[in-house]
Amino acid sequence: MDGLGSRWVRFIKQYGPISRNDNMYDEQIRRSARRYEVEPLDFVHPLETELFASVSSDADNARTIILTGTAGDGKSRLCGRLWTELGGDAGEWTANEIYQEIVAQVGGRARTVGIIRDLTALPASGTYGRWVGKPALLEAINRSFFEPDPDNIFVIAANDGQLLDTWRRAADVPLSSEGHALLEARLVDARPASQGEIAFFNLSTVSCATILDLTLDAVIEHPGWQAAYAEAEADGFFSAACPIRRNFEILSSSRFRGRLRQLFELMDLNELHTPIRRVLLLISNMLLGHPDAKDKLMSPADIRPLLRSGKAHAGDIFQNLFGANLSDARRESLEIFEFLNRFGIGDETTNRIDNVLVFGPSDETLRPYYVNLVERAFSAQALDELSALRNDYLERPDATHEGEHPFLASLQAQRRAIFFQIPDDQSEELRLWDLTVFRHAGEFLREVVTPLNNNGRVGRAILGRLVNGLNRIFTGMLVTTDRELLIAAGLSGSAAGLSQILVERISVAPRRHEKVELRSGTLPMLIVEIDSGVEVRLELNLVRYEFLMRVAGGALPGSFSKECHEDILAFKSTILAALARSRPPDESTDLSFRILSLNSAGEPVDDVIEVIRA
Question: What CA–CA distance (Å, rounded) separates 284 from 219?
């Protein structure tokens, strides 16, 4: 069993959640590719074209380049690609030196380009080209920041947290304070500095969904899979019953990929970043995960014994996606699984879905759903086991296994599979997103994110519900209006639970320089315009959207997210401050208050109370 297909699967295992020295990750992967004689995974990074343009011979100017981001974003890999783009020998790069330099035509003339593949690993002492010691090299880098046409430019790869720390600790190196200010402006404030210039690439700004698309394409389209089909053994590796083959075919399906991509889009919209390295880890675990295998990942040699023992079905992609094959400690140590488990898929459910799972095989009405959602999701081995557990549960529902019937414990895995099996045209009927913590996530993608990304407008009904949710939090009352934004305060300030002192009514529809609308941005942006050119903004991430929609639907503000409740009250305080600046009170008139109350329909009414000066 040493054909290309088998070697490819063993190579893919190297990306999985196994112990390794992360500082040597790229070199270990390259070494594994050579050992298994397979083509390594390859794809064009979204920032690669722009990066190459910044060191081309016809670049407008030559600038030092900063590649930053979190560990695993692909900084070292991009440095290697840049080295060969500049004419460097790929064999020299694999020597894994921290600092390497090359003379290349950049910005119209020859310059020396020094590449630091990992700034934090750069020793304090050593020779770096013509510079002796790290301080001398940092001084040269600082000068390249501020020279209008530098002879020496650098490419520096560093994790975002360590980048500023390096310059902070080099305060005695000439120009380091100016260099720190330049880097801080780009990294923290995302703006050009007052002096100096660099080409700045933050790899963490690339969306998770984009990275998922690129890595999945690279994995699925690799020729190793076709070789695996050709090498299929009748009762072993890549046979029809092989869990690796089954997982690969599910991963390749448009429905599974589409639903997985939605989860990654929602991670972006929840401001959760996962680097390339972790996405590859996830894909490896989805394909090869098994709780009984060595390292919790299957190899080709494991398949025949697993099939014979009847345990092959435990290597299930729907479970592996959430790290169920791993120990609790290992799963919790990997942020990609922690992010995915935040959706609560498998733990959340609806009565209808659970009725399908319990009564679907025997109920004529539910049977078609059971066939499409369950029977097509699981292997024959898994279905036989589920059938036995279900029948035992229906006959003896009180039977316990550590306090719970085993069939009830199996429901989590079945719900996870169903989440990926429900077709898009049945998502409303079967309330797909009720199988997650974020019941309004599908609506957020469909009705808010997609229109804004396509330069469209969000529908009036969606905006109205958001305004209604804001009004209920701003006032602390169950108001029903969605035509106006009610800005109210309490006697104890803007954060009071009950705010009955009406400060202003802001029209949602455009009127006298007032309006409330949603605009596109890195995240959807809720804009409250209170006067010409006076706007207050709230970034609408997934959690805030879910929170406001639940409150609009009748939930108590503190029942879903205390943090979101505080965020919205802070947003109200910002609006109140903007109103105070834009519309200062007329001190010449008598003091008056407008006290809010609700009529029988829940609509706000206000009574004016005047305080006459003596």
Answer: 9
pTM for this structure?
0.93
Q: Is the Cα dihedral 119, 120, 124, 125 positive or negative?
A: negative
- Residue-wise pLDDT tens digits, 594-610: 888 788 877 888 777 77
Do 53 and 187 fall within a single domain? Answer: yes
What is the number of domains present in the chain?
Answer: 4
pLDDT tops 90 at residue 161: no
User: Domain check: are 469 and 382 in the same one?
Assistant: no
Domain boundary among 341, 375, 391: 341
Give CA–CA dist 328/325, Å, rounded. 9
Q: In this structure, are residues 279 and 211 in contact, taking their beta carbons and an 8 Å threshold?
A: yes
Quote the crossing angle between the two packed helices 351-359 and 406-421, to the nearest 10°: 110
**Does residue 55 share a domain with residue 8?**
no
Give the domain extent around 357.
351-435
Do 65 and 125 have their domain in common?
Answer: yes
Residue 22 phi/psi, 5-degree rounding, is -60, -25
| Residue 213 included in any domain | yes
Residue 494 confidence (pLDDT) above 60: no
pLDDT tens across 236-288, in order? 999 999 999 999 999 999 999 999 999 999 999 999 999 999 999 999 999 99
- Cβ neighbours of residue 486 under 8 Å, at least 6 residues apart? 471, 474, 475, 479, 502, 505, 596, 604
Q: Give percent of the chain with pLDDT exceeding 70.
A: 95
Strands (E), 499-545: 501-507, 515-519, 525-531, 534-539
- Same-domain pairing of 29 and 62: no
User: 501 - beta bridge partners?
Assistant: 489, 595
pLDDT in tens, 366-380: 999 999 999 999 999
| pLDDT exceeds cutoff 80 at 29 | yes
52: in domain: yes
pLDDT for 496: 62
Q: Are 473 and 552 in contact (CB under 8 A)?
A: no
CA dihedral 363, 364, 365, 371 (to 10 degrees): 80
Handedness of CA 141, 143, 145, 150 (dihedral sign): negative
Residue 443 included in any domain:
no
The Cα–Cα gap between 306 and 314 comes to 9
Is residue 138 domain-resident?
yes
Average pLDDT, the chain: 91
**Quick check: 93 pLDDT over 90?**
no
Length of the chain: 614
Q: How far apart are CA 415 and CA 417, in angstroms?
A: 5
Whether 460 and 605 map to the same domain: the answer is yes
Find tokens 């990294």 and name the residue: 187
